[in-house]
UniProtKB/TrEMBL annotation:
GO terms for cellular component: cytosol. It comes from Azorhizobium oxalatiphilum. Its main location: cytoplasm. Keywords: Cytoplasm, RNA-binding. This is SsrA-binding protein. It is found in: Cytoplasm.
Amino acid sequence: MSEKKKKTLPTRTVADNRRARFDYEIGETFEAGIMLKGTEVKALRTGKATIHESYAAGKNGELWLYNSYIPEYLEANRFNHEPRRPRKLLMHKRQIHKLTVAVEREGMTIVAMKVYFNEDGRAKVEVALGKGRKAHDKREAVKERDWNRDKARLMRDRG
C-alpha cells in the first residue's frame, strides 16, 4: 500500500517588522496562529500587508493583534474585511498567560515580528517579548552594528 504524501509548501514571509529589532530589545519569540476571514487570507497572499506598528495585548484570557494592516482584497467587492481590525491570535493558554504576565509585571511589549505562511499553507505570526530601548541605547546599537561591519571588512581584507 502506498502512503499519501502530503504536499508541503515552502515558508513564505508576507510581512516583516525590521524596525522592531531596532526599537526593542527582543527576548523570547513565539509562533502564533491568526484568525482571518477568507478575504484576508487572499489579501495576505498578495504580499502587501504591513505590521510595522502592530502589537499584541491580552484581553479576557485571549491574545489580540492590534494595528496590523491587511489591505482589502479587490475582487471581494462587498464581502471585504476591515483593513485594521483587531485579529485574534491562537496560542496555548500557558503561552498567553506567560506573555500577559510579562507585560503586566515587567513592563514589556508583545511585538509582531513577521507574518508568514508555514509549510501547510497556514498564516502564522511570530510574536516576541520586547523591552523598549531609549534613544541612547539605539545610538549604541548603531555604533556596535557599524563596528561589527567594519571589523568583518578588515578581517576579510587581511585574511
